[in-house]
Amino acid sequence: MTDRLTTAHIDLGAYSHNLNVIKSHLASTVGIMAVVKANAYGHGIVEIARAATTAEFKYIGVACLYEARQIRTAGITHPVMLINYLDPASFSDALDLDLTITVMDAHAIAALAYLAQKRKQKVKVHLKVDTGMHRAGCDPDEFVALAQSITRNPYLELEGVYMHFADADNADHTFTLHQLHHFQRLIASLKTMGINPPLIHAANSAATLALPASHFTLVRPGIATYGINPFAPSHPLYAKMSQALKPILTLTSQIVHIRTIPSGDPVGYGCTEKVKRAARLALVPIGYGDGYVRGAQSRRYMLVGGKKAPLIGRVSMDQSCIDITDTSASVGDEVVIIGTQDGLSQSATDLAMQTGTISYEVLTSLSARVTRCYTTSI
């Protein structure tokens, strides 16, 4: 019995399947980082991290100490890397958790080196460089000097260097290749200095699947491991990846109450929508408190009895209403918000398009009170 009738069903077999799809695009010398930040894109960080350790992922990638602590508290000892900026005041906590740390500037490197020496502990670091996304990373002009400062310190190990693509899911690779070539030149500069970090990485999901030259020695696929196509329908690889990848999450709920209202009556907060005919309305226990976003209600639907039941009225914090007039649905019937029912399907990407966002936000918004159930069906 779940705590609530709204449940996210996670198929770990599909997760393994997606890993194999990704592996088929890689040389045997290329490792994979399992990116599990943001509660594993809403899928449950501990369970996905455990699955990653059994699937031969080289690294587990997280964004913050909170996420790393969850993994370590669960008893997972696999290598974990912070793929984000970390406040030097938190370096001690990171070392206690046996984490690999991203550095981007001289101040962080000096602070980490001081702490490592004080603790007499060798620390693995990855140096991130900004090649054009202009979000995070050191300036390219500082890259070689910062790498040298790390390699010269006996308490720091430059295990890796990396960058991040801004536009790799675009079919036009002009900017992506600009970033890639910039990064390749920087790596070549390191080699002339005798610096050869074993892990060099740049590729996200889209680059992993579309740009072999970006693989280097490690890739960081995120959304694709969860079975979500990283490409838009207009991309040449969209159809192939839609067939190859298997979404690992199905989001379901149940009808808990039904009532019939007359034509012209409003539904929900603000009376923003009125029924245009006498209508049977079903109450479904999912709302924005569960991560089911509030906006764009008139474009959304749920699946009931193999039919599309339109959302009507504003989404509330804990519940939503759907119009089931054209169905024979009754109380207790399953409602599919993301997934397939009787041959009809709605993906996280479909829901994202209806609400004016992206699949990443749809998935990562799923709150803790949505019960996660794990199976292995493949």
What does this protein structure show overall?
The protein is an alpha/beta fold and 378 residues long. It has 2 domains: 215 residues, TIM Barrel; 127 residues, Lyase, Ornithine Decarboxylase, Chain A, domain 1. 30% of the residues lie in helices and 24% in strands. The protein contains 12 helices and 20 strands. The strands form 5 sheets. An 8-stranded parallel β-sheet has the order 8-7-6-5-4-3-2-9. The chain has a 5-stranded mixed β-sheet with strand order 19-18-10-1-20. The longest helix is centred in the middle third of the chain and has 19 residues. The protein starts with 6 loop residues before the first strand and ends with a strand. The mean pLDDT is 95.
Discrete helix count: 12
As laid out across the biggest beta sheet, the strand order is 8-7-6-5-4-3-2-9
CATH H-level superfamily title of the largest domain:
Alanine racemase
Give helix % range.
25-40%
CATH class of the largest domain: Alpha Beta
Instruction: Please tell me the total number of domains.
Output: 2
From the 3D structure, determine the CATH topology of the largest domain: TIM Barrel
Strand content: 15-25%
Structural class: alpha/beta
What is the CATH architecture annotation of the largest domain?
A: Alpha-Beta Barrel
From the N-terminal CA to the C-terminal CA, the straight-line distance is 24 Å
